[in-house]
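[#protein-structures] MJ: dropping ATP-dependent 6-phosphofructokinase here for a structure pass
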Amino acid sequence: MAAEKKIQTIGVLTSGGDSPGMNAAIRAVVRRGLALGMKVKGIRKGYDGLMNEEIIDMTARDVSDTIARGGTILYTARCAEMRTPEGQERAAEVCRKHGIDGLVVIGGDGSFAGAQKLANLGINTVGVPGTIDLDIACTEYTIGFDTAVNTAMEAIDKVRDTSTSHERCSIIEVMGRNAGYIALWCGIANGAEDILLPEKYDYDEQKIINNIIQNRKRGKKHHIIINAEGIGHSTSMAKRIEAATGIETRATILGHMQRGGSPTCKDRVYASIMGAYAVDLLAAGKTKRVVGYKNGEYIDFDINEALAMNKDLPPYQYEVARSLSANYDR
Ligand code: ADP
Ligand code: F6P
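AK: finished. structure tokens for ATP-dependent 6-phosphofructokinase:
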């Protein structure tokens, strides 16, 4: 869809769960916007801040020294009001009042749904995928995934050391909301004995118990189970497994540490290019778009189409993960 008039002022906000690299994306939006002769306004605390007019003018200096920082300098929020028609009207009205004729929304699917509603009310919007969960269907990459999955991997290596020393079983729960991407990647990267993914789990705990007993008989000193947040209940699962196997079992829930920290090179670079790309779309008169990355290229989609897409865990990757963690007598 084409914007009706030339964009002079753009706004940028971060929304939903923060992710490492969001600052790099903000920095790119600000500097690309300024480079194209636009005014840039930063909106604090996502849609919540938009409704409350927490809006500041952004200069190139405001984003100095931010590319290496985790979190989001604009802060973020979840805003229930934005889900209502009244809230959406209010948000559009604030954009108009502040002369914001193009808005870059950095966040996940929920945040894009907000951008879609604003676009329907005449505000030019572009979404940039920012979430550690990698669960946005239109893109192979989301800003923050690489840092989060590396943070989780390093933490799991550490748990594995102590698990081996004590000859324990460890259930390590990783984030991802309803998606199993972080769990799948850690399962492969950490050489886990079991990987439990919400998309695939059959809730057959006896199978896991049998696997632990078999592994112990073969002389394995630890048994690492990566459990995705979408399955959860790691602590009670650990108690049941310990009771059934007689092997000490501990649960570790990695939690919000996975969302923090300095972004990796990959997150900084993807965020920078995606942020600049979003501004270029607005400058070219495009609206109601979402930036994505597919087959080695940065591309964009209509928001309605992007939100209607589905994403499944890659079956081949899942099959390989299982075959590499399986027991072998040979
Ligand atoms: P994410 O953007 O990471 O998916 P959420 O699902 O929490 O995170 O969504 C972030 C915010 O986007 C919500 O708090 C809300 O303000 C807005 N949002 C979510 N869904 C909708 C919707 N259907 N319509 C309008 N706004 C929405
Ligand atoms: O979407 C990112 C995410 O970290 C999910 O993995 C997790 O389910 C959720 O956000 C946690 O949200 P909160 O910060 O509200 O606990």
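MJ: nice. The first strand starts at residue 9 and ends at 14.
AK: one more thing. The chain has a mean pLDDT of 96.
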